[in-house]
Amino acid sequence: MAKALLNNTEEIMNAVEKQAIIKEYQLDEKDTGSPEVQIAILSKRIADLTEHLKLNTKDHSSRRGLYKMIRRRRGMLTYLKDNDIDRYRSIIDRLGLRG
């Protein structure tokens, strides 16, 4: 079962997609871990997992993982909002969150 999920490129974010997200949201050339990048990657994973759960409604362990990702993203957004409101507003607009 796990091997089948790993081979399904439609559900799992691959390295190419992840690099594209990093390039789009990074603050400078070597940035891979800023809150904006992490929030963007989590948003993609959340969207993918949400689609998976629409088809697999009884997959409770994945649902728990989804809730954990949402909490992590919410925490990073709160951090960004408290420390740099302009960057917070920018990432919210770019990702279409809280709309």
TrEMBL record:
Signal peptide coordinates = none
CDD domains per the record? Ribosomal_S15p_S13e
Q: Sorted alphabetically, which keywords does the UniProt record give?
A: Ribonucleoprotein, Ribosomal protein, RNA-binding, rRNA-binding
- Please give the PROSITE patterns that the UniProt record associates with this protein: RIBOSOMAL_S15
Gene3D superfamilies reported in the protein's UniProt record:
6.10.250.3130, S15/NS1, RNA-binding (1.10.287.10)
Q: Would you name any one GO CC term?
A: cytosolic small ribosomal subunit
An annotated Gene Ontology molecular function: structural constituent of ribosome
Question: Quick one: a GO biological-process term for this protein?
Answer: translation
Q: Which domain of life does the UniProt lineage start with?
A: Bacteria
Q: How does it assemble?
A: Part of the 30S ribosomal subunit. Forms a bridge to the 50S subunit in the 70S ribosome, contacting the 23S rRNA.
Family in the record:
Belongs to the universal ribosomal protein uS15 family.
What does the record give as the function of this protein? One of the primary rRNA binding proteins, it binds directly to 16S rRNA where it helps nucleate assembly of the platform of the 30S subunit by binding and bridging several RNA helices of the 16S rRNA. Forms an intersubunit bridge (bridge B4) with the 23S rRNA of the 50S subunit in the ribosome.
In its UniProt entry, what is this protein called?
Small ribosomal subunit protein uS15
Specify the species: Anaerococcus lactolyticus ATCC 51172
* Gene that this polypeptide is encoded by: rpsO
